[in-house]
Amino acid sequence: MSDVALPPATGPGGAPPSRGVPDLVVHGLRKTYGVPPVRALRGVELTVRAGEFVALMGPSGSGKSTLLHLIAGLDRPDEGTVALAGVRTEELGGARLARLRRRHVGLVFQFFHLIDHLSALENVALAALIAGARPAAAATRARDLLDMLGLLDRAAERPGALSGGERQRVAIARALANRPTLLLADEPTGALDSAGAADVLDLFGRLHRTGQTILMVTHSREVADGAQRIVRMRDGCVVDDGVPAPPDPRTLGGGVTVPVPLRVDALTGRRAGRPWPDRAPGRQP
User: Fold this and answer.
1) Full set of structural domains in the chain with CATH
2) For residues 92 and 89, what is the distance between their CA atoms, to the nearest angstrom?
C-alpha cells in the first residue's frame, strides 16, 4: 500500500472538531432480543474522546457487535443513552437519527458490503452523495480518498476484480467519504489474509495519527494491540474500560517528569515540538 500522508481529520463540512465534548458517550445501555429473552447488553458504560483509537474485545456473544449497531443508530436500545458528538440519539426520530448518522458516523464491516455493479470510485462517491455532497464534489472526494489509500489506479474496477485487502480499503474510503466524527469498524480484518490485515491496520494507525476517532471491534489481541486503548466486554457488560488508574499523587513531584502527548504533523509524521493544550488524547486544533 502506498505510504501517502493523510490530511488531519476534520468534522462535518471540514470544520475542526470540538475537543471539549467526547465523540461518544454510552450510558446504561441495555438490549434484549427474542423469546426466550437473550440479554445482549446489560448496562454498558463507555466514553470515547476525540481522537482516541479504541479496540473493543470480548468472546463471541459478549455484545460487541450489538453495541456497535446501537452506537451507529442501526438499532434502538431498550434502555440507556447514546450521545454522538454531544447529541443524544434516543431523543431523535428515525429521519433525524439517519441524518445524524450520515453526518457523524462511518461504518466499516467485516465483509465489505460494497455494491457489486459499481466501480470502486462509484462506491465511495455514492456515500459522499448520500451525505449531501454535490456530484462533482462527491467524485472529487472519492478520487482523493482512493488516492490517499493507494487505490487510484484501481478506481474503475468493480469489487469482484479487487483483492480482499483492496475491497476493505475501498470500504474504509467509503466510510470516510462523509468526514465522520466517529469511525466504527466491526472485525475489519476478519475476512482478510495476513497481508491484507496488516495493510488495514497500518491504515487505521495512520488515520488515528491524523486525529480520526476510531472504535474497532475485534477478536484478535494482535489487532487490538494497534489501538490506543483496549476495552473488554463479557456477558453484555464492559468489564475493563482500558483506562489506567489515576497516578498516586504521592509518586509525583520531586523532580519526576510526567509525559505530555506531543503534537504530530499529519503530513510529515514528525513531532511539532509543542505539547497539546491538555493531557487528553485528541485531534489537532
Assistant:
1) 21-242 (3.40.50.300)
2) 5
User: CA 219, CA 232: separation in Å to the nearest integer?
Assistant: 10
Q: CB under 8 Å to 33, separation ≥6 — which residues?
A: 40
Residues facing residue 127 across a β-bridge: none
**Positive or negative, the Cα torsion across 91, 108, 62, 51?**
negative
pTM for this one?
0.78
Residue the block writes with cell 495519527: 209
pLDDT of 113-144, one tens digit each?
A: 999 999 999 999 999 999 999 999 999 999 99
Contact at 8 Å (CB) between 139 and 123?
A: no
**Cell numbers standing for residue 128:** 459522499
Angle, helix 164-176 to helix 120-130, in steps of 10 degrees: 20
Residue in this structure with the C-alpha cell 431523543, named with its chain if needed:
91
Give the tens place of pLDDT for each residue, 22-38: 899 999 999 999 889 99
Q: Which residue has the cell 440479554?
A: 39
Whats the size of the chain, residue-wise?
285
Cis peptide before 36 (omega within 30 of 0): yes
> Of 200, 239, 244, which Cα lies nearest the Cα of 220?
200
- For cell 454510552, name the residue: 26
CA distances from 283 to 12, 56, 91, 203, 231 (A): 14, 21, 28, 17, 21
